[in-house]
Amino acid sequence: MNNLWRGSSWRGVGGWLLGVFLLVAAFSGAAGPVVISGNETKLDLTSGAAQRVTPEGPDSFTVLDFASFPPAVTHVLDVPNTVIGPPSNIAITPDGSLALMANSLRMDPSSATNWFPESAIHVVDLESRPPRVLGQVTAGLQPSGISITRDGRWALVANRAAGTISVLGIRGKQVTPLHEVKVCEPVDSVSDVAVSPDGRRVLASVQKGGYLAVLDLDGDRLTLTSRKLSVYGQPYRVVITPDGALGLTAGAGAGNGTDRDALSVVDLESTPLRTVDYVSLGAIPESFEVSPDGKLVAAVLMDGSNLAANHPDHTEAGRLVILGRRGKTYRKISEHAIGRIPEGVAFTSDGRHLVVQCHPDRELWLFSVRGTRVRDTGHRVAVPGFPSSLRASP
């Protein structure tokens, strides 16, 4: 058990930080749509590659409660998490009572650049005030993308350094590791996992292998099929639309920071399953999310902002791209400049707001959504670290 507000969590942080946190609004429970941001302090990306930060501060997570706007904000310190991996390494149960948050790595104390895979998943009680970590469960090495079935009974975790998917059982506030299924060799890097609304079909992004793996889920029994779906580049985030009709994935191609990359669209209603379209996005889609009604996709792009300042293609802004549903595919509606090195993006469960993480600025940008119109509200939420992972309550 971890008590995140114990005195030792604050030692060395400084009196100014204590003052900031005492002014933060107390979490009022899941009165409205909730969005959780994981914030880390170990790795800075602004040099064009991950560089260790010294001295490290405590990692944290931030809860936004959208019962009203601007949302109520709560920060919880001393919860290790990381920017290494897709920003989908947080998941929230359908009833909003629990969150699972991966702790994917730990720094090598003898090296300024090296780290080791971890295997821990934090179990966070969102009904306590403030939220608190109930404990940890063990997944495979370097747990990354997490998805929870719509009935809230099972969670699936993609383990990048193990090449496996872990199955966890959820009963109330109790989370239990059940078993792991091998998807690929560790070098192929299974990065994210998505579950269909009926809880029976699973897609896993095999990033370095360059394909989507297809698995079947029956209760807690997860089975790898022989089907591999061809997709663009190196798939990272993977999502199944709320109606279960389409599978979506995106990721970088060669990863040079300038070439346009694409969203791959898979028809899950065809026999056999097949990829039916590639939708041009822009350079380096770090993450994307589908709106609760399935009509919109929001993708955040590095767009050169992740390149070193002396790189000829360096830019001072990332990009948010909005796509609209057109039958069995999506088409671009609008683009918006955002802060540098965007990581996660999430729609609130009522579909009325969109949250974007801007890593080096340590900010969350809030957008309003009305139909197909997405507008920057100008409201920013400062977080106590580099925002690195993001998930909204279902």
Mean pLDDT: 91
* Helicity level: under 10%
Radius of gyration: 19 Å
Q: Structural class given helices, strands, pairing? A: mainly beta
Quote the distance from N terminus to C terminus.
26 Å
Strand order of the largest sheet: 5-4-1-30
Number of domains: 1
Give the biggest sheet: 4 strands, antiparallel
Can you tell me the CATH architecture? 7 Propeller
Query: What is the CATH superfamily?
Result: YVTN repeat-like/Quinoprotein amine dehydrogenase
CATH class identity: Mainly Beta
Explained architecture:
It is built from 1 helix and 30 strands. Strand 2 (about 45) and strand 3 form a beta hairpin. The radius of gyration is 19 Å and the shape is globular. The protein has about 400 residues and is mostly beta strands. It has one helix spanning about 15-20, and strands spanning about 35-40, 45, 50, 60-65, 70-75, 90, 100-105, 115-125, 130-140, 145-150, 155-160, 165-170, 175-180, 190-195, 200-205, 210-220, 220-230, 235-240, 245-250, 260-265, 275-280, 285-290, 295-300, 320-325, 330-340, 340-345, 355-360, 365-370, 375-380, 385-390. It has one domain: Methylamine Dehydrogenase, Chain H (7 Propeller), CATH 2.130.10. It has a 4-stranded antiparallel beta sheet, with no helix packed on it. The longest helix has 8 residues, at about 15-20.
